[in-house]
Amino acid sequence: MIRLEKRPQPSRALSLSTPIMAVLATFIFGGLLFAALGKDPIEALQTIFWQPLFGDYAFYYRPQLLIKGAPLVLIAIGLSLGFKAGIWNIGAEGQYIMGALFGAGVGLAFYPLEAWYIFPLMVLAGALGGWLWAMIPALLKVRFGTNEILVSLMLVYVAEQFLASMSLGLLKNPEGYGFPGSRNLQQYASAHNAELFAGSGMHWGVVAALIAVIFAYVLLARHRLGFAIRVTGEAPRAARFSGVNPARLVLFCLGTSGLLAGLAGMFEVAGPSGQVTIDFNVGYGFTAIIVAFLGRLHPIGILLAGALMALTYIGGDIAQSNLGLPAAAIQVFQGMLLFFLLALDVFTHYRLRFGAAEAA
Amino acid sequence: MTDSLLDLTGLTKAYPGVVANDDVSLRIAPGEVHALLGENGAGKSTLVKMIYGLVKPDAGQMLMRGESFAPTDPHAARQAGVGMVFQHFSLFDALSVAENIALGMENPPRMRELSQQIRDVSDTYGLPLAPDRTVGDLSAGERQRVEIIRCLLQEPKLLIMDEPTSVLTPQEVEILFKTLRKLSAEGTAILYISHKLEEIRSLCDSATILRLGKVVGHCTPRETSARDMAEMMVGSALKTPTRDSKEPGEVTLRLNNLSARSAHAFGMPLRDISVEVRRGEVLGIGGVAGNGQDELLNALSGETLVGAGMITFDGRDIGLLGPTARRALGVLTAPEERLGHAAVPDMSLTENAMLTGATREGLERGGMLDWGKARSFAEKIIKTFDVRTPGPANAARSLSGGNLQKFVIGREVLQRPELLVVNQPTWGVDASAAAAIRQALLDLASGGTAVIVISQDLDELMEISDNFAALNEGRLSPSRPAQGLTVEEIGLMMGGAHGMEVAHV
């Protein structure tokens, strides 16, 4: 019989090394997967992990890493606060869409006026949009005890309908020859979330993501609110006893994660994407859930996980076009990463025991 | 060998880091009521778990009526005629008595036959119980009867009872003892685990005393004083807590028709509780578990908010203030459940010191936490209350129950409370640590703090309380001076036998 036995103290060494072990295990089993598909596993892994960073076309791919990584990190940081407290916002995708719609809407309302205050107003509107969308599950949970997982998830689909309606109606480009989609904000200087240094991929969203990482780190390590979040996640009764107001914590965690997701959507629509279109959202809000757990809900971990995830996205794209790997194989590969991380995570809190079972 | 029912020789069981039972031998004759005495952690539970087939001994042998007896699981033990009533009941609240009993049987008879059997057994042994009642509505004493009847239906030769009286009023204890004596007279042996010495003196024929996993003595309880047995258990002379007698101060806490619903579906609501507590007074609140103790503590700590005017502290209405605001005023509490309520199991002692100490110890400024100060505070608690741990960086979960209890009580005591409410302050704590905790509570009272001790240990309450009141079904009896109260009076304050009379014994 093999049993899991709870460790009296979580192993610190394992807690630091499991992400690396998970990545290695993914290499091995991902390699086997690629080999089974008739591809050279070494070449496939090299394409995914080496090409984007140091390959011949790295000058093109490196900025893409920041562009893909920033929204993931920004959203995942917000989600991690709630996840740590056992408050599950699964609807970041919807909050991301609403942030983009609010931000783009404010920007387009000023078109074609050129003024310095337009972009800051769009940032505020984007944050507000995401925050409001997250407040719906938050208030329903606090007031009626509804399940925030279901409500926030359902609101993703509502937000997608809003997005479609906006791209076909209110925000449609009047000069767009009838094609769905808004004006391109990249061509509207006051509303454009341009790169801070040309060709670097560094836009305001990347700055916001880095600020969010530092903010979350300080909050969790040194602030009463961060302590309340951690205590609530570990022992809700002890949290109440220590004076945490659970309702306020739900509002804060869902609100903050919605706000950050809204910001991510706004920076995306005003920058790399440029346009409100029907298929504007590409799943950052869902992938960010994986990023949050991959980074073990720790701000620095999330930063690294976001970078790694962006790398597998870009590398996966290259592998698809260069090696002809199916998209599903890339998704399985990404799924493996999460699986191994969570599976190995068990061993930081439990140790494996071989021997006869014994009822206690 | 023929005259003994159960013979244990040289039983040894080791767990990583601790030898729970070391060469334990024991003999029980048919119809004998045998007490197993010892402090928490002495190895009583491990020993009975081996007899009941829950734990396999590393060495030693067990004989049942002269034949080798090595149960691999509780089912085998029951087949051999061993029944056990656990301290914590394993019953489903939403099912009826008969359904609960049927669930534990291999081949349950039809519900109607089973109900009849239950009635027969309950009549014969004076354990009144209606088979069709829902368990969630039963008192703790009645739930225990369900467990006992469940065992008796199997006609055991040996009945093991683990701390059966901790959930009973004195009157209910009397009923239980009559049942046990009747069983014993019919030839059923009883292995009775307890640390309540007076009970053992009145019930048991013989006693085995365990300390640190070893048998340290046998005695005949009727001929041995409680104090001698206690000192055998502890291994040293006991210190009785002392206090300076003095005049009580002004009224500081006033509960005025305090009513509150319970947070749990089967919890006990508080009903019209009115009482006054003075500075320097120790108010002991007794009562059988589940009669509103948790709810009362939550209402006083601020975890449950109650109506305006129900709780006044130094003339201020605090019923609508949360825990942090109450702490700022000096109202501190220590809940019964250590892991998960009073402390966060997976967090360090430093973080657990921060849990309630942030406000009064100045561990935070403008929302930012000062971990250095928190560590010093944790170290101070560890040092002052002799908490055995390598240091404040260790997780609360890694401490033994008694040590964590010292930490939890110490954390509140060192914050100079104006009013301290503790629930089960010495539950699961060894005798010397319990004495230290009681002494700390008395010292606080001498310094002018009002102390409320909620406990199910009547000896403890009589030892330290100035006044005594009892919780019964969410109501609090009037508070009376503890001095001179008789056990009968206390029992009646606790609700007597909950409307149950001894039947056909």
From TrEMBL, chain A:
One term under GO cellular component: plasma membrane
Domain of life of the native organism: Bacteria
Keyword Transport (UniProt): no
Topology within the bilayer: Multi-pass membrane protein
GO molecular function terms attached to this record: transmembrane transporter activity
Alphabetic keyword roster: Cell membrane, Membrane, Transmembrane, Transmembrane helix
Localisation: Cell membrane
Major localization listed first in the record, in broad terms: membrane
Stretches that traverse the bilayer: 12-37, 65-83, 95-111, 117-140, 149-171, 202-220, 249-270, 282-311, 323-344
InterPro entries on file: ABC_transp_permease
The protein, known as: ABC transporter permease
